[in-house]
Each structure stands twice: as structure tokens, then as C-alpha cells.
């Protein structure tokens, strides 16, 4: 694992694996998550299929820059600012996080890359593909959305359940237990994960870096304040693959379908029984889908 300082002064922790001359895939993870949430089976699987694969911690997560000097945002105000003429101070936007991706590429002397984003990472990847067209060879979004986070029956129910299990103290043991329960709640009904494996993953996650609660809120504010991206996404020229689970309790399938309708010539792959996670049983298939999509996109440019 390495760190690099971007032109904007953001220190980014990343992992770079594969032949340096191979086509590049950049994995962009979601809200509050460290890059280790990308399953090793998917990460190494893409390397084995002939790609140079980079995964990294977004600003305010993992071992990348923690921007506490930007303060604690008001999530309600930022959410309302999309609808009302309210003046709010946004620490940073999803556009800033998309620029981090471009600056990471610049720092590593990468001219073009295939972008793969999960959840919030998919939103960041969409913006990067629309704003930096010549730098993006293909786009893959997983369990993501083209619109700001909105309430649905499933995610309201999820929020209620999460509120009930919030740890009263921030001990390591409490955070590990919460992480396990969170992954069970957002997980795939058709592909339930072994509880022991979830505990091992949570323990490994906790050892690498403590959860950045304020950073999580700043990232969430960036999502809340971002307007609907229909006009922006219509500018995307890169071949696009949208992967979405039919049982996603966080970002409903309708969001994936809507994204596919907006981005021209995009392809939608609906995964029956998949939730808002990376089920180990599906990683071989998902690796194949992403690699095939990236190869096809590269061939079209020849």
C-alpha cells in the first residue's frame, strides 16, 4: 500500500497491482468505506485477467487525508439546499471527489483508465466519465444511482434498524459488532455471508484504520447536496455497464434502471437476490463481467 499527494493537497492511500503496461482499472469505493471493502477475489481476479488494478481510499476515509478542518456539516441543510434557496457551507462535493480520481491518475502518469465505482463510488465515477471524457475508457457502476439519495420503503426500514443497533460507545469491539450487523442488514438475501467471515473482515477493517465518523458525514453531505445528474450523465461517451441487485435495500433497483435509461447505449445487468454488498459467491462472475466490458471498450478504440 502506498500514498501519494495530489495537486489539490489530498493524500491518497492506494494499492497498485498488475503489469504497469497493462490496461488500467480504477476501483472507486462507496460512502465511508476503505478500499479494502473491494473483495480480494475481485481485485486480484481482475489482475489475473490482464489488468493493472488500482484501488484507493477516498478523502476522509481509511488512510487518506482526514479533512477535519472543514468542520461538521448539517446534513438536513444540505439536503434541503437542493430544494430551497438556503445558504450552506459544503466542505466538498462529489465533483471534488471526482477530481481526486483525475489527480490520482495524473500523479501516477496514467493517461486513460476504466472506472469501476460502487455505490457512492459509482456516482463519483459517473461525474468523472462525464467531465473527463478523454481520460475514461469505460464506466462500470455497481449498486449506484444517477440521482441524489432519496427515501424509499426499503431504506427507511433499514435506517430504523441501523438506529437501533448504533453503538453507544466507540470501542473497537462495539464497532466490529456494528460492522457485522450492518453488513448483514444490507447483504444479499440470496447470498448470505458466513458470520465468522464477516467478523474476520470487520476485525481486519478495524485494524487498518478507525472509522472516521466526521469524514463519513462530510461524504454524506456531498451526496446530499449533489443535484440530479441527468444532464451531466447524458454527456457520457464511454461504454457503460450498470450492475444492480434486485434486492438492494439501500439504493433500490429502480435507481439502476433509471441510470441505464439516461446513459446512452449503456447495458444493465440485474442480479437476482443481490443486495448492497459483494457476495463472495458472485465475485467470479462479477470479475468476468467487468473484464469483458473493459476489453470490449478497449477494442472499440482500436
UniProtKB/TrEMBL annotation:
Lineage, highest ranks first: Bacteria, Pseudomonadati, Pseudomonadota, Gammaproteobacteria, Alteromonadales
Annotated protein name in UniProt: Pimeloyl-ACP methyl ester carboxylesterase
Occurrences of domain AB hydrolase-1 (ranges): 23-277
Superkingdom of source: Bacteria
Taxonomic source organism: Pseudoalteromonas lipolytica
Cross-referenced Pfam families: Abhydrolase_1
InterPro entries linked to this entry: AB_hydrolase, AB_hydrolase_1, AB_hydrolase_fold
Amino acid at each position: 500500500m502506498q500514498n501519494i499527494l495530489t495537486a489539490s493537497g489530498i493524500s491518497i492511500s492506494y494499492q497498485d497491482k498488475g503489469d504497469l503496461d497493462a490496461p488500467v482499472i480504477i476501483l472507486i469505493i462507496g460512502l465511508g468505506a476503505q478500499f479494502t471493502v473491494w473483495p480480494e477475489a475481485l481485485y486480484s481476479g481482475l489482475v489475473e485477467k490482464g489488468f493493472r488494478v488500482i484501488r484507493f481510499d477516498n478523502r476522509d476515509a481509511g488512510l487518506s487525508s482526514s479533512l477535519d478542518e472543514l468542520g461538521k456539516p448539517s446534513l438536513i441543510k444540505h439536503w434541503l439546499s437542493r430544494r430551497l434557496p438556503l445558504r450552506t457551507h459544503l466542505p466538498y462535493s462529489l465533483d471534488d471527489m471526482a477530481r481526486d480520481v483525475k489527480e490520482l491518475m495524473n500523479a501516477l502518469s496514467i493517461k486513460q483508465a476504466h472506472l469501476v465505482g460502487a455505490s457512492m463510488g459509482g456516482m463519483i465515477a459517473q461525474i468523472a466519465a462525464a467531465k473527463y471524457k478523454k481520460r475514461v475508457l469505460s464506466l462500470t457502476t455497481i449498486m449506484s444511482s444517477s440521482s441524489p439519495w432519496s427515501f424509499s420503503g426499503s431504506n427507511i426500514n433499514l435506517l430504523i434498524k441501523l438506529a437501533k443497533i448504533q453503538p453507544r460507545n466507540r470501542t473497537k469491539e462495539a464497532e466490529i459488532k456494528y460492522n457485522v450487523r450492518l453488513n448483514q442488514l444490507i447483504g444479499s438475501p440470496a447470498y448470505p455471508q458466513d458470520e465468522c467471515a464477516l467478523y474476520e473482515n470487520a476485525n481486519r477493517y478495524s485494524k487498518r484504520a478507525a472509522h472516521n465518523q466526521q469524514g463519513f458525514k462530510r461524504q454524506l453531505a456531498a451526496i446530499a447536496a449533489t443535484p440530479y445528474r441527468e444532464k451531466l450523465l447524458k454527456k457520457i461517451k464511454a461504454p457503460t455497464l450498470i450492475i444492480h441487485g434486485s434486492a438492494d435495500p439501500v439504493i433500490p433497483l429502480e435507481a439502476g434502471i433509471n441510470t441505464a435509461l439516461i446513459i446512452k447505449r449503456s447495458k444493465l445487468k440485474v442480479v437476482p437476490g443481490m443486495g448492497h454488498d459483494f457476495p463472495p459467491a458472485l465475485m467470479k462472475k462479477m470479475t468476468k463481467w467487468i473484464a469483458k466490458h473493459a476489453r470490449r471498450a478497449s477494442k472499440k478504440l482500436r
